[in-house]
């Protein structure tokens, strides 16, 4: 009887699911006739904004590994640090341009002819020009007035366009800029045929409806595409990106895990979660979401942070269910409580594993979540190790993960070698941090840890 | 000459700062005449929603420590797990009610007389009633139709009110509920004098303008206060809270670090960052922001997670500057790039410390960020240890933190003992996880680690 109604419920659910998907309450708002929620593009800036993250020092190999992974994921653009930042930055920019990726390669320069000349020589598909237009930045950053700003912008734009590559003009700190100044410079650059104009919340304090209003206003002034860049100081970077798209912006700057200045910008994974809730078909048709976890792991290891426990989609608790809670909803279709489907991201539902261990199958669930491959017997073995340490002191998630990763490295090291690291010739204890790449960090760190 | 213009700039900045503060671009929108951005209240649910976090198992002592810390911080309400959840939940609820806190104590029950009778006996100041009103939940969670829902809601409300305590009625999964169903039940409960009605984005997929619209619509139907509850599956929980306040909602549900079901709800700290950007005076007048880091540390240790590297305000990188970047902005006033002032949160600006160590003063900066107390000599000593391990293998932030915390525990253990842990009688290796409290976890974990 109970089971019957559950099965019956399931069938009903299936037919209703279609209807709900059709009338998706989280989808684009029909009143937003300029909305690009179903036509958005991503400018991936892990290798530009992300390089400004306090803990980021990318080697050439790491940059190439990240660029390839992002290209495979399906990002539309990859933005690189300015080639005038350093000799190495210039060489890395040229190297990435030569990879022949599907994604267009951009570099990010100041609004200055010296920078523009270097940039067009690197082989990039486009140049992102930025200049501070807020009163704060006019005073302290370069001290130029708006006429001068507009003049140098036009000069740079015409120069870059004459080389047949894309150009974006962006203001910095747009929400503290005078609206009339902003609009007049945007109109001027639009007239000379810039490909995109950009709005940037450089200080990370814009709010969603404010973003919508500015984008809608700008949309009435320019005919080119609008790109947006949101810092996350007040936790609104994903939501601001969404309302920008609703207002008619087309491109969103993101980085993996959101890494960047201070606590960063709109994260790639979080934006994907937001957008799949709005238009699943579009997102799945463009982006390989099942690669998200690997890309986040690659970048997290490169900058030596852990993926936050509460990270959208890939955080340990995003799809983790606590035993006993929602017993009923396990019988009912999972999407009753989960709009995001873990399988869309190549993930599964997990059960919590730490503290009061429910046994090796809970640990196996975490091994799976970490995307490591261990047999049932191996999971039982590592569970013994965890329990043993758990008797000595309380374990947090990172402790358990370390034990699992150590164990995994130990059992797999002789078999699997990441590309570029030869077990015979590579030093098992790396001194040259420059040469690290994402996978290398995992392998070598764990090798080191075995000592 | 260079210095002159900097000093000149500084003076100009001061006078302009007043003007900018006055015309705060991130402040309440004057068009939102129902806005509660400058009158919001916080319902702190770490001890209810947070208890549903996969990794949360709070002992009575921990619950009391968290409740006291939240009360000291200045939260308006503290929400507790339903007393019918377990015998221990009921006793803990009674114990917290007896603490005599300034914050009002709420408990969260199903819309059922059995639950209501138990709740009013605990001594709470108010009861939060919740029921699923979406088609999904009507089908799978309790199978009741709207007439029945309304009837039982009215019975529970009148019963609770007859005991002279506050009552809130909330729907669950509000954004997937039929709008007419929602509004008619809200109007019914408002008529019988409920104190608040609640909107809940149970599945975490609502977006900011959608939230604004629903709140504005509801505001036209009820005269009582509106409370909102946002899950963070698509990273919009802070932004949704903000637009809800703009639309006229008054109370926001939060938890420390956002812990809760899946990846949680609006975080207390993130909301404070959002709101201080909008109305600094109001936030500073109500909440002890300088206690935020301690509360987050207490809760993080209790549920055995690390504070995410990119957490608003307290994450390692939120106020961390990379050496060499923004050299210019160090001369200019810091708020050119930072609207949020670290000093408002009792914090300071930090320099990055990991990887290519700039020396012991960088490590000292991290020691300070972790709120640990070490002398310059001790910082030099622990830096030696870090460099030594750094020669053996790459270190991530958590590695460095572990070394620092170990060192700190070692040098301070004989002197400082957290309340409730006596160094002579407490077992140095705890087996009874039930007895842990937040500070205890720090101390004992580190004791364990020394072995
Ligand atoms: Zn930026
Ligand atoms: Zn909830």
TrEMBL record, chains A, B:
E.C. no: 2.3.3.14
Cofactor(s) essential for the protein: Mg(2+); Mn(2+)
UniProt keyword annotation of Chaperone present: no
Catalytic reaction list: acetyl-CoA + 2-oxoglutarate + H2O = (2R)-homocitrate + CoA + H(+)
Pathway entry: Amino-acid biosynthesis; L-lysine biosynthesis via AAA pathway; L-alpha-aminoadipate from 2-oxoglutarate: step 1/5
Domain Pyruvate carboxyltransferase stretches: 40-293
Keywords noted in UniProt: Acyltransferase, Amino-acid biosynthesis, Lysine biosynthesis, Magnesium, Manganese, Metal-binding, Transferase
GO molecular function terms attached to this record: homocitrate synthase activity; metal ion binding
Matches recorded under Pfam families: HCS_D2, HMGL-like
GO biological process, one term: lysine biosynthetic process via aminoadipic acid
Gene3D superfamilies assigned to the protein according to its UniProt record, in alphabetical order: 1.10.238.260, Aldolase class I
Gene Ontology cellular component annotations, sorted alphabetically: mitochondrion
CDD domains on file: DRE_TIM_HCS (cd07948)
UniProt family annotation: Belongs to the alpha-IPM synthase/homocitrate synthase family. Homocitrate synthase LYS20/LYS21 subfamily.
Function as written in the Swiss-Prot or TrEMBL entry: Catalyzes the aldol-type condensation of 2-oxoglutarate with acetyl-CoA to yield homocitrate. Carries out the first step of the alpha-aminoadipate (AAA) lysine biosynthesis pathway.
NCBIfam families: LysS_fung_arch
Name the UniProt record assigns to this protein: homocitrate synthase
């Amino acid at each position: 009887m109970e089971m019957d109604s559950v099965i019956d419920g399931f069938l009903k659910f299936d037919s209703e699911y279609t209807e709900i998907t059709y009338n998706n309450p989280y989808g684009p708002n029909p009143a937003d006739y300029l909305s690009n929620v179903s036509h958005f593009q991503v400018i991936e800036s892990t290798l530009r904004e992300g390089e400004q993250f306090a803990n980021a020092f990318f080697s050439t190999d790491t940059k190439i590994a990240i660029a390839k992974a992002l290209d495979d994921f399906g990002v539309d653009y990859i933005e690189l640090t300015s080639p005038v930042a350093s000799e190495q930055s210039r060489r890395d920019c040229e190297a990435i341009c030569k990879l022949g990726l599907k994604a267009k390669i951009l570099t990010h320069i100041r609004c200055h002819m010296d920078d523009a000349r270097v940039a067009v020589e690197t082989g990039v598909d486009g140049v992102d020009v930025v200049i501070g237009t807020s009163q704060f930045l006019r005073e302290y950053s370069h001290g130029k007035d708006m006429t001068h700003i507009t003049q140098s912008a036009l000069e740079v734009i015409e120069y870059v366009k004459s080389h047949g590559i894309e150009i974006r003009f962006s203001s910095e700190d747009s929400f503290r800029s005078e609206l009339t100044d902003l609009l007049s410079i945007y109109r001027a650059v639009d007239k000379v045929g810039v490909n995109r104009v950009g709005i940037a919340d450089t200080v990370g304090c814009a709010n969603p409806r404010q973003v919508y209003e500015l984008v809608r206003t700008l949309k009435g002034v320019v005919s080119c595409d609008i790109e947006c860049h949101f810092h996350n100081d007040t936790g609104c970077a994903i939501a601001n990106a969404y309302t920008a798209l609703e207002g008619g912006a087309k491109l969103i700057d993101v980085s993996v895990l959101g890494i960047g200045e201070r606590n960063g910008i709109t994260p790639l994974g979080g934006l994907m979660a937001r957008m799949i809730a709005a238009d699943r078909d579009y997102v799945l048709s463009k982006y390989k979401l099942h690669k998200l976890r690997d890309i986040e792991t690659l970048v997290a290891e490169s900058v030596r942070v852990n993926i936050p426990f509460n990270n959208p989609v890939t955080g340990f608790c995003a799809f983790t269910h606590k035993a006993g809670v929602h017993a009923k909803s396990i019988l009912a279709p999972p999407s009753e409580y989960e709009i995001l489907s873990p399988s869309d991201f190549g993930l599964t539902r997990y059960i919590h594993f730490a503290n009061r261990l429910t046994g090796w199958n809970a640990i196996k669930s975490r091994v799976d979540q970490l995307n490591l491959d261990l047999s049932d017997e191996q999971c039982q073995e590592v569970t013994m190790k965890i329990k043993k340490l758990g008797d000595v002191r309380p374990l947090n998630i990172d402790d358990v993960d370390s034990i699992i990763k150590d164990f995994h490295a130990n059992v797999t090291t002789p078999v699997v070698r990441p590309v570029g690291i030869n077990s015979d010739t590579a030093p098992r204890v790396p001194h040259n941090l420059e040469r690290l790449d994402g996978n290398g960090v995992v392998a070598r760190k764990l090798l080191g840890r075995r000592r």
